[in-house]
Amino acid sequence: MKKAVQRAVIGAAILAVASASYLAYDFGMIRFNHPSIKDYPIQGIDVSHHQGDIDWKKLAAQLNVRFAIMKATEGGDHKDTRFARNWQAAKEAGIVRGAYHFFTFCRPGREQAQNVLETVPNEQGTLPIAIDLEFVGNCDKIPTVEQLTAEVNAFLAEIRSTHPGKPIFYVTQEFFDLYLKGNESSFPDHYLWLRSVFKEPEQEKCGRWSIWQFADNGKVDGIEGPVDLNALCPTETGLAALFTETAGR
């Protein structure tokens, strides 16, 4: 009986520590990754309507906000309510911009592409269209590899005439392992934007990834509350060309 009580007390203590650690991380009190500007000179953020009003001039004054990738669309008809103003304000502030589309598994790729074409301007000096591919926040459908590749290819075929650049695929490690790993040739050529909030990805000279999302609880001047933080792989050459004009910031 005594051992059972001891085990219960230990279990409760472990649970309490785990809960406290999660809350501390969730409120931005703990961050696992702190890549320096020296090692990762081009850093940025990704935002959506969840960040509310953003002071883009304050953001532009910070060395760790060289780019901003903002949510534009989701599925076949949802448009982020703050995309248009964020897109224009970031341009005026001199921050390199990009737009991302949250890809749902429950709408055909071509329908989703039309939503992007109606929403995202085709402008020089911007990052390629990013496609957010993940399970969190998605519908209940779990596509096969063949189903997903067919819909992603249909999506990109539809937007290619207006947005011809090599796309960016945002993925979690779980999603990468399930769909992209070993199946890269089934997808169009793309830049990889990898979420890894617990450890630094192996660089492999950017053969595997181009953008690293290293935190989702970052703090920056100009945004109230947490924001996702990202870094460009130091040896990435394709996307880095967009930052030559602002290298002196």
Automatic annotation (TrEMBL):
UniProt KW Zinc-finger keyword: no
Superkingdom: Bacteria
Gene Ontology molecular function, alphabetical: lysozyme activity
GO BP term (any one): carbohydrate catabolic process
Keyword list, A-Z: Glycosidase, Hydrolase
InterPro entries: GH, Glyco_hydro_25, Glyco_hydro_fam25_subgr
Family according to the record: Belongs to the glycosyl hydrolase 25 family.
Name the UniProt record assigns to this protein: Lysozyme
Species the sequence originates in: Rhizobium mongolense USDA 1844
